[in-house]
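Project standup — Tuesday

K.O.: blocked on the structure for the chain from last sprint. Re-posting the sequence here as requested.
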Amino acid sequence: MLGIWAGPSMAEQAAPIPVPAPASQETQPLQPGATTTGRPATAPALTPAPVQRPPAVAMPAGAPSTGSLLQTILALVLVLGLLLGLAWFLKRFAPRAMAGGANVRLVGGLSLGGRERIMVVEVGDQWIVVGASPGRVNALATMPRGEGAALQPPAAGQPAAASFGEWLKNTIDQRNAN
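H.V.: unblocked you, prediction finished:
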């Protein structure tokens, strides 16, 4: 029997437990060999005390029942569903905080390396050429807004720009020349 207590053993039940005699009301000690009844003193007879068993303790079952486990899983799924629903609701119906960002638009960009870029950002009626690298953003040039400047055919004597990078270089060179 592993871990199951069945009460006192047979040896514990058979062994008598000494019980002290009731105290007398006299507080003076008796002389050796004297008795209160007039008979010679003898060893008191030991009477076995009634066996007291510890109160029974109800032990829980070895494993949780399937019903309580299923109830716990369903409660967890319900809570997770409520969290996902609340997140969707807040994303869908939350007020927009970026109403002021409507004046800023990315016109184009060119990657110069693994982590460096040149971008043209339209802010109001100006274009700003921005160089971006890890940890740094620099304004390289500012020019008036070019309505369809990238779509216009090149002026006489200028080669056609094959890419945004060439167009950007030509535009910056023209600005610096003026």
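K.O.: great, moving the ticket to review. The chain is about 25% helix and 20% strand. Helices lie at 10-14, 66-93, 164-177.
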